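[audit] Reproducing an earlier prediction to check determinism. Same input, same settings, fresh worker. If the tokens differ from the archived copy the diff job will pick it up downstream; this log only records the rerun itself.
[audit] input (269 residues):
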Amino acid sequence: MMPHTHGSEASRPTRLSELSAAYSPEFIAEVMRLIEPWYHGYFRCEVRGLENIPSSPAFLVGIHNGGGVVEIPLFLYAWYMRFGLSRPLLGLAHQAVFKFPWVKDLLPKIGAVPAAPDVARKILAAGKDLAVFPGGDWEAGRPTSERTRIDFAGRKGFVRTALQAGVPVVPIVITGAHETGIILSRGTELAKALGLDRTERMKAFPLWVFPPILPSKITIEVLGPIHLAEELAGIEDEEEKLARGYALVTTRMQQKMDELYRARAGFLG
């Protein structure tokens, strides 16, 4: 799961309520019009498997690529074209993004909420759809040479959340988004030197050759729901259950990712 936000437990429900209320169908409609030519033209985006998304609450678990700059708006476009603006998709976002004055005002309008396990549980308990990217900044900043590998950094919080909320995990596999830029290194040492690992809970500060602007074809596939409670039935040890659930989800996602990469026609697809 994404890192905890700063602040007391008591303050989070208020922030969640405020941020959820900030969701704006009118703003998203405007954003959709801006995304449309990029979706169909520049990135030649193809989204498959939306029929696998169950009724609310849907708990979507995705792969993070290329700083997360491109894939999220493209998937939101596909989501709202399929389900309409009356079914908002909330998403856990790293605490750091809410520190930028203009960003912190815009992101809640499209459904971004501060990343924390208790926030995720409250959203799902309220019957709302939620998307999480467990790999966070670590996975989003992986070098281009590692682009074909899923790397959630061993973060198993999404498994715990799914089991506690009693909802299946719906994996989202993405290829092509990491090819929109060239990353030489995660920049872990730089993140540490800048103190970002302490102040912002960021383990990576990617070193880019090109920012995420290359016209790569992006393919997104939603896999069938994984019912962890059923798949892990009979396992009593909590840590074993989390480890087995993590391995189950990431293995199925990696298999699909390998399949999608075999189908790509060159670096830019």
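[audit] rerun output stored. Observation attached for the diff report: Confidence is low (pLDDT under 50) at residues 1-14.
[audit] end
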